[in-house]
Amino acid sequence: MGDPLLMLHFLFLFLLLIQIFPAAVATLSTFPIAKPGCRDICGNVSVPYPFGFGSNNCYRDTTFEVTCNDTYYNPPILFFGNTEVLNISLQGQIRILNFVGRHCYDSKGNTISSNYPLFNMNNSPFTISDTENKFTALGCDTYAYINGSDGKQFRSGCVMSCTNKDDLMNGSCTGIGCCQTSIPKGFRSFEISVGSFYNHISVYDFNPCSYVFVVDYNWYNFSTSDLLNFTNEIDESGYARVPMVFDWAINWPKNQSNRSCEEAMKDNSYECGNNTICSVSKNGVGYICNCSQGYQGNPYLGCQDINECAYPNNNPCIYSYSCTNLPGNYSCSCPNDYQGDGRINGSGCTHNPKQFPVIQVTVGIGSSLLFLLTGSLLVLWALRKRNLSKLKERFFKQNGGLLLKQQLSLYEGRSTESAKIFTAEELKKATNNYAESQIIGRGGYGTVYKGILPNNKIVAIKKSKLVDESQIEQFINEVVILSQINHRNVVKLLGCCLETEVPLLVYEFVTNNTLSHHIHDEECKSSISWDYRLRIATETAEVLAYLHSAASPPIIHRDIKSTNILLDDNYTAKVADFGASRLIPADKTQLSTLVQGTLGYLDPEYFHSSQLTEKSDVYSFGVVLVELLTGKIALSFDRPDKERNLAMHFVTSMKENSVWEILESQVLREGNNEQIYEVMELARRCLRVKGEERPTMREVAMELEGLRKYVKHPWVLQNPEEVESLLHGDQPILDLDSHNNPIGYDSLRAQGIRPLNIDGR
Ligand SMILES: *[C@@H]1O[C@H](CO)[C@@H](O)[C@H](O)[C@H]1NC(C)=O
Ligand SMILES: *[C@@H]1O[C@H](CO)[C@@H](O)[C@H](O)[C@H]1NC(C)=O
């Protein structure tokens, strides 16, 4: 086998065998042919239902009953009546052995023996197959005929005369010593007879007998020796027999000939099982059943799918591993760079290199990707669906929902309208799934969306940036604080949502942007008059005074700045963002905390000591006052060093008597000088370095209120000494020189930066 050529030869032979015998190989599998519990074989003859023997439920009816004689014969012999059965096929045929008629003479022309069996099957459902059988006569001085009477009548036969032995031909039954003729269709019985004109006297040496029989013509092959002594299949009495074929069928009911399969199907007695096709039998006396294409078995018991791929080494596919069995069919495939149906008896597989890289691969990858994608989406969807409620619960906990509930219950009953807890779904709907178009503000804290609740109420929804654990407290803080405050100048918190990954806060919608926007944006400046500025300052001061004294316990806002003061259409101030606010326990006037706030507004004393008091808000408010007066941003790196921090620049300017130069021109135009001076003076006091020297918010609010109501004195220049004393001891200045970041003035807290923790905590 070392010779590669030899191996190739074997391979070729092997392939050839597969090509020739695929069907034979595929049908090797076994299936039941008889009813359960019935013998299906007698000797070497298979007995398929509707035939059967033994118990009476093994055959359809007595016309299909056969007997197996296994006591007398070894091997056993199957009998149909007293006729030996050779074969029963499910294709509707049964082969039996039929006697040969003969008439023999001696050399003088005397009869030695004669036998003309009458064949009668009148009571059987079978007819003599006209397609498989031929009436056959043998002899060279012979006449023979067949008589049939089965409703119809017929008589036909052969007449032969031959004188020369040498004229005979083996294998040719065409009139010389052998004659064959067709028989008509549908006969169940016949008579045969044979005779001789001259009693074989002249042909006695090679043909002493005349023979006559009906035979399976495919089986019978004429041989010249048959004329001498035809002794095929001698039975025990010495009679010769030849195979003959009958057509069998499930007969139409008596007196109902020429029915159809459709009609038969309606009968209770319909015999065809699953996966079968009914067809009218060839002889027209009934119907037969056949397995549908791709199925095998006994159709009278039901057919089973053929597993064409069951034999991996010789299934009907060129690439046997590509074989896939299908009900009633099979499929084959070709490798990637081949095309065709892959079947041995089909178009096979032909190489097609052009299609390989582009189409097949693309289609292959594309479809598998699509499949994967669809699959994983489905899985994801299912998982999401299943985990959503768990997830919501987790977020609720992570977002401090429990803590919040607890906190809120502590303050229950104190506020007239407590915050509502919204569902994620509600807010998603309200913001049109957080559409870009709904965004009304963005900052370090997150994004603010405009939303519309089902009751048409417009709200602002603050979506925080991803929170870490430490920010949760802050978040709850704001909710708790705001839910307790009921002040017309505080942005109302309507509720929150804790089911989402990041907490969402829902506020009343304040229509007219921030104070910062109005005083710093060039386009808006003219719209905000001195009167408005004064009123906004007063309202903000009142809120802070309320937080510091009226609210119980006191609340410190900690992040007062112009961007946290919102305005409605009437320029009414609404203080917002209580995320950094602190409740001061009743027994304490100050609180140690991490320094929080916004650069430019941050109380320097608090910055250094980390001791939080109400006065930190006063300082921040002072910065807002200065902003209102000057229209300048609290901290700007675009300005010269000295002017970067507005609060300091303002205080210095007051000291240097140059403060009027930095005031907003509109303020100068519209404002009463005395009023302006009083406000400047108030701002200066608010910005004092030492917290205890600053006025309380209550005082600030009252002064501003008073200023709004009437004009007191004409403007008087302040006492320079006082200014001097105020500024003695430099205010701590945040060293921001190293920063060039133009957004450095933004909220420190919002950026997640915690300024110096001075007392080490
Ligand atoms: C019976 O018939 C089938 C097909 O007609 C054939 O394959 C088989 O060899 C036959 N058996 C006998 C015992 O003649
Ligand atoms: C026909 O075949 C038989 C045996 O098969 C033989 O004995 C006989 O000689 C043959 N006859 C002719 C004419 O070939």
Secondary structure class reads: alpha+beta
For this structure, the CATH topology of the domain at 514-751 is Transferase(Phosphotransferase), domain 1
The second-level CATH architecture of the domain at 514-751 is: Orthogonal Bundle
- How many helices? The count is 17
The largest β sheet comes out as:
6 strands, antiparallel
Number of strands: 38
Structural overview:
There is one protein chain. The chain is of the alpha+beta class. Helices cover 28% and strands 22% of the residues. Among the domains are: 93-248, no CATH class; 399-509, Phosphorylase Kinase, domain 1 (2-Layer Sandwich), CATH 3.30.200; 514-751, Transferase(Phosphotransferase) domain 1 (Transferase(Phosphotransferase), domain 1, Orthogonal Bundle). It has a 6-stranded antiparallel β-sheet, with no helix packed on it. A hairpin with a 2-residue loop joins strand 4 (77-80) and strand 5. The structure holds 2-acetamido-2-deoxy-beta-D-glucopyranose (2 copies). One 2-acetamido-2-deoxy-beta-D-glucopyranose (NAG) binds at residues 168, 170, 223-225.
From the structure above, extract its key features.
Transferase(Phosphotransferase), domain 1; alpha+beta; 22% strand; disordered C terminus; Phosphorylase Kinase, domain 1; binds 2-acetamido-2-deoxy-beta-D-glucopyranose; single chain; 17 helices
Fold topology:
Elements: H1 4-20, H2 22-26, E1 41-42, E2 45-46, E3 67-69, E4 77-80, E5 83-89, E6 93-99, E7 101-105, E8 111-115, E9 118-120, E10 127-128, E11 133-138, E12 141-150, E13 152-161, E14 178-181, E15 189-195, E16 209-216, H3 224-228, E17 241-247, E18 250-251, H4 261-266, E19 276-280, E20 286-291, E21 295-298, E22 302-305, E23 324-326, E24 329-331, E25 338-339, E26 350-351, H5 356-398, H6 401-410, E27 420-421, H7 424-430, E28 439-443, E29 446-452, E30 458-464, H8 469-484, E31 493-497, E32 504-508, H9 515-520, H10 530-550, E33 555-556, E34 565-567, E35 573-575, E36 582-583, E37 591-592, H11 604-609, E38 611-612, H12 614-630, H13 646-655, H14 665-670, H15 673-686, H16 697-709, H17 720-727
Parallel strand pairs: 27-31
Antiparallel strand pairs: 1-2, 3-4, 4-5, 5-6, 6-17, 7-8, 7-16, 9-15, 10-17, 11-14, 11-16, 12-13, 12-15, 18-20, 19-20, 21-22, 23-24, 25-26, 28-29, 29-30, 30-32, 31-32, 33-36, 34-35, 37-38
Helix pairs in contact: 6-8, 10-12, 10-16, 12-15, 13-17, 15-16
One 2-acetamido-2-deoxy-beta-D-glucopyranose binds next to helix 3.
